[in-house]
Structures are given as C-alpha cells and as structure tokens.
Amino acid sequence: MLRCRDIPDLATDYLEGSQPWFRRAGMMFHLAYCSACRAYMDQLAKTRRLLANGRLPAPDPETERRLVMAAKLPD
Ligand SMILES: [Zn+2]
66 C-alpha vs ligand 1 centroid, how far in Å? Predict the structure, then answer.
C-alpha cells in the first residue's frame, strides 16, 4: 500500500501513464482516500500543463522579489 511520502516519486510516471498497471492502481486507490495527495497531484498536473503551453504567468513583483531573495546564496 502506498503512503503519502511515496507519491512524489511516482507522480510524474502516473501523469504520463508510464507505470505498470499495479502501480497505477495503487496510486488511484491512494488518491481515492487522500485529499492531500489529490491536491498535490492536481497542482502538479496544472503546473505541467502551464509549462507545456508556455503560459506560466509571470509572478507579481512581491513574489518575484521573494524568489530572488530565496535564490541568493549567503555571502
Ligand atoms: Zn496521501
């Protein structure tokens, strides 16, 4: 039986349909009862669609500032 911590490692193969049937069935079973992982998978699928379409919206200025600050290495 899959646990929540297993889902991220399997998510891409699940979305691409490249898993063996028994693994896909395990994912479907887990997603049927786990709303947190359903939300994770929905967000991942949405992000992949936006990236594939080249339509990822630009971040607002405050989010961009936070991203830049987070990416800076300590001196
Ligand atoms: Zn879960």
Answer: 29
Instruction: State whether residue 48 is helix, strand or coil.
Output: helix
The residue written with tokens 């911590």 in the block is 5
How many angstroms separate the alpha carbon of residue 75 from the centre of ligand 1?
38
Q: Which amino acid is at 68?
A: V
pTM over 0.85: no
| CB of 56 closer than 8 Å to CB of 50 | yes
Question: What is the C-alpha to C-alpha distance for residues 28 and 21, in angstroms, rounded to an integer?
Answer: 10
Centre of ligand 1 from the C-alpha of residue 12, in Å: 15
What's the 40 CA to ligand 1 centre distance in angstroms?
9
pLDDT in tens, 24-43: 999 999 999 999 999 999 99
In contact, 27 and 14? CB cutoff 8 Å: yes
